[in-house]
Write a structure and sequence with these properties.
The protein contains 13 helices and 10 strands. With 349 residues, the chain is of the alpha+beta class. The protein folds into 2 domains: 2-100, Phosphorylase Kinase, domain 1 (2-Layer Sandwich); 107-338, Aminoglycoside phosphotransferase (APH), C-terminal lobe (Aminoglycoside 3'-phosphotransferase, Chain: A, domain 2).
């Protein structure tokens, strides 16, 4: 193992030995490793050059993250015919995976370089439609957790537990939190009315790779799917078009929804719109909480800059009639003047 670009300090001692053992066993013993940038998780990545094929090392400290869900979902997606990275070698107990390297061409990078937005989003939604056309029996293995009300409410609570105290400068009143979660529980039935399928949960252009040597939906490489669940497919559709990190061009969101719904003529449009609004609003509230937590707990303040955009998305989603009670709660608990970006660059401390 050669640290060209170098591993950070955690890859010394026993950790380095476990990595070397994995690489040796897979035929990558002489490969040079170059550290890649970190993401919002605790995982670290290194690119291997000089080995038998392009590969990445995923290093997930076991005390922080379990690689088994990622591994299970990757194998499941590949079995269904989708482009998840191939796994060349694994030490699950050590949290080490040697996986296929999809390169650097995320959809986000392609868009930043002037790639056709409509074509990229068409490909992204075609992947979702194909995934959601898989029979329930094939799409939903028994080990996949359900995206049930309790899980959705736990995510919504990230808003009251992390964002509100920082934005308002005082702890969230317990009665306000209870009311918030009660209103969310009452709003969730539209999401239950939709067919249940495999939900990847973090499906946006930053987690999609453009694979130029593949055709059709295989040209879309999938990443960051370890939190997959069984739930309403509308969740991943809104994840794609209600992007926390970028503004979509005019008409792109409507184009994506129309293209998706064309594939499911039996799906009631009003039901889909209601479920989409509920799921999108819950996701936005969750993201505002997560981005605050990434700064406050994990020392990653860069995500705070996206909070104003996510607030705009949340406010738009709250306009659906199904969310009228929650819209009133937000107006009272966090009035517009208080919807600031917390942290060192925001209006709250």
């Amino acid at each position: 193992m050669n640290g060209g670009g170098g591993f950070p300090a955690p890859h010394h001692g026993a950790r380095a030995g476990a990595i070397q053992s994995l690489l040796d066993g897979a035929g990558f013993g002489v490969a040079v490793l170059s550290t890649l940038g970190a993401d919002a998780s605790f995982r670290r990545y290194a690119r291997l050059t000089g080995g038998p094929r392009p590969a990445l090392l995923m290093d997930a400290p076991p005390e922080k993250e379990d690689v088994r869900p990622w591994l299970a979902v990757a194998r499941h997606l590949r079995a269904l015919g989708f482009s998840a990275p191939e796994v060349f070698a694994a030490d699950e107990d050590a949290g080490l995976l040697l996986i296929e390297d999809f390169g650097d061409d995320t959809f986000s990078r392609a868009l930043a370089q002037g790639g056709g937005e409509a074509a990229l989003y068409d490909l992204a939604v075609d992947v979702l439609a194909a995934l959601h056309e898989v029979s329930r029996a094939d799409a939903l293995p028994g080990w996949l957790p359900p995206y049930d009300d309790d899980r959705l409410l736990d995510e919504a609570a990230l808003f009251t537990d992390w964002y509100m105290p920082e934005a308002l400068g005082v702890p969230t009143p317990p009665e306000s939190r209870v009311e918030f979660l009660s209103l969310w529980r009452a709003a969730l039935p539209p999401a239950r009315a939709l067919p249940q399928t495999l939900v990847l949960r973090d499906y946006h252009v930053g987690n999609l790779m453009l694979l130029a040597d593949r055709q059709g939906i295989a040209a879309c490489g999938l990443l960051d799917f370890q939190d997959a669940v069984a739930g309403a497919g509308a969740y991943d559709v809104v994840s794609l078009i209600r992007d926390a990190r970028r503004d979509l061009g005019p008409g792109i969101a409507a184009r994506v929804k129309a293209r998706y719904l064309e594939r499911f003529p039996g799906l009631d449009r009003a039901d889909f719109e209601a479920a989409s609004a509920v799921l999108a609003a819950g996701r936005a509230a969750k993201i505002i909480g997560i981005f605050t937590r990434l700064w406050k707990r994990d020392g990653k303040p860069a995500y705070l800059a996206h909070i104003p955009r996510v607030w705009q998305l949340l406010e738009a989603d709250l306009g659906h009639p199904a969310l009228a009670p929650l819209r009133a709660w937000f107006a009272d608990a966090v009035p517009p003047a208080k919807r600031t970006m917390p942290g060192p660059r925001g209006g709250a401390r």
